[in-house]
């Protein structure tokens, strides 16, 4: 008897299909399973199925949830998505293997100092406010070159760009713009695409898709 496909298998299959349509290798796309708000019991099936790359949006939640899981699965890679306060930089550097939300000069200073102190250089994406929305995280397009230069000066390994496009409107033009900005700056990785639009993002070059609710169900 066939088992019904798990959400993880379904999402992996959809990523692979989108990659093939775009002439890309499916392995070129990292699925970051966004487990924020979901307890360890919800994460366990993905770990048991071999998934190892997860994302959280709060330092404190990650620190309470992940140490025990990491003891059982030491190869876990934990990514930080979402706003990071400068006063949490040190904890973020100690807790995460990748940071997707470097978005302002004060955070460059704080993360640069934290990485120096810890002797641990955590790869970062610079988050761009791609729709130039008020109240949204991310640096403006105009600020991007200076922020990249500051990050380089601070010894922060910036590996690519990240965005969360405006809600309620076709995301493709924003993904395409992020890809162009990254290429203009010689950056090769793109963190873009969430549950609603990850296939579009993959077709437009995403190397990291951040999928939460499509894997874990709605957040309470
Ligand atoms: C919560 C979150 C996601 C995942 O969102 P879903 O719509 O649940 O897939 C992705 N990126 C960021 C920055 C998030 O905060």
TrEMBL record:
Tell me which residues make up the Alanine racemase N-terminal domain. 9-219
Q: Which family does it belong to?
A: Belongs to the pyridoxal phosphate-binding protein YggS/PROSC family.
- Per UniProt, which keywords does this protein have? Pyridoxal phosphate
Q: What does this protein do?
A: Pyridoxal 5'-phosphate (PLP)-binding protein, which is involved in PLP homeostasis.
Keyword Transmembrane helix in annotation: no
- Bilayer-spanning residue ranges: none
Identify this protein by name. Pyridoxal phosphate homeostasis protein
PTM-bearing positions, type N6-(pyridoxal phosphate)lysine: 36
Q: Which organism is it from?
A: Novosphingobium soli
């Amino acid at each position: 008897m066939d088992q019904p496909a798990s959400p993880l298998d379904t999402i992996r299959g959809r990523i692979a299909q989108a990659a093939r349509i775009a002439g890309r290798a499916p392995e070129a796309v990292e699925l970051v399973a966004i487990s924020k708000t979901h307890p360890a019991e919800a994460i366990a099936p993905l770990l048991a199925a071999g998934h190892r790359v997860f994302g959280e949006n709060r330092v404190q939640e990650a620190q309470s949830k992940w140490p025990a899981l990491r003891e059982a699965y030491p190869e876990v890679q934990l990514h930080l998505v979402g706003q990071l306060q400068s006063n949490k930089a040190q904890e973020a550097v100690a807790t995460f293997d990748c940071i997707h939300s470097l978005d302002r000069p004060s955070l460059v200073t704080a993360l640069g100092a934290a990485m120096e102190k810890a002797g641990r250089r955590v790869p970062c994406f610079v988050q761009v406010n791609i729709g130039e929305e008020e109240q949204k995280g991310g640096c403006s397009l105009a600020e991007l070159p200076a922020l990249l230069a500051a990050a380089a000066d601070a010894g922060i390994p910036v590996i690519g760009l990240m965005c969360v496009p405006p809600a309620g409107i076709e995301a493709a033009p924003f993904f395409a713009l992020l890809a162009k900005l990254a290429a203009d700056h010689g950056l090769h990785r793109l963190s873009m695409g969430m549950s609603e639009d990850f296939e579009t993002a993959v077709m437009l070059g995403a190397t990291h898709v951040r999928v939460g609710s499509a894997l874990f169900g709605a957040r309470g």
